[in-house]
Amino acid sequence: STPQGVTAQAPSRAEVLRGRVVTDSGSPVAGARVIVTAGVARLVREAAADADGHWALRFADGPGDYLVYVT
Fold first, then answer.
1. 25/54 Cα distance (integer angstroms)
2. Closest CA to 29 of 57, 48, 46
3. Residue 4: which of 29, 33, 31, 30 has the closest Cα?
4. 3-class SS at 58?
5. Could you tell me the pLDDT band of residue 66, with boundaries at 50, 70 and 90?
6. Sign of CA dihedral 1, 18, 54, 45
7. pLDDT at 20
8. pTM here?
């Protein structure tokens, strides 16, 4: 099914951005491709959601602006 909901959270001193990809009904989307861009330089990181829809990406620069895309 198509990913419908994405949640992401990062603590105030973030080094790891975490999230979960689910459908409208709340079912996890295993293998969803998550692309995150960070900061002015638009550093790009990619991850695949696990069987429960969870993903995590490390950003050494800590807090900042992030754009999260899911395909």
1. 16
2. 48
3. 29
4. strand
5. confident
6. positive
7. 96
8. 0.74
Check residue 54 and report its DSSP letter.
E
User: Exposed, middle or buried by CB within 10 Å (0-12, 13-18, 19+), for 71?
Assistant: exposed
Instruction: Give the bridge partners for 56, in sequence order.
Output: 18
3-62 pLDDT per residue, tens: 666 666 655 565 788 999 999 999 999 999 999 998 777 789 999 999 999 999 988 776
Q: Which residues, listed in sequence order, are joined to residue 66 by a DSSP beta bridge? A: 38
Q: How far apart are CA 23 and CA 61, in angstroms?
A: 31
Backbone angles phi, psi at 19, to 5 degrees: -165, 180
pLDDT of 63: 72
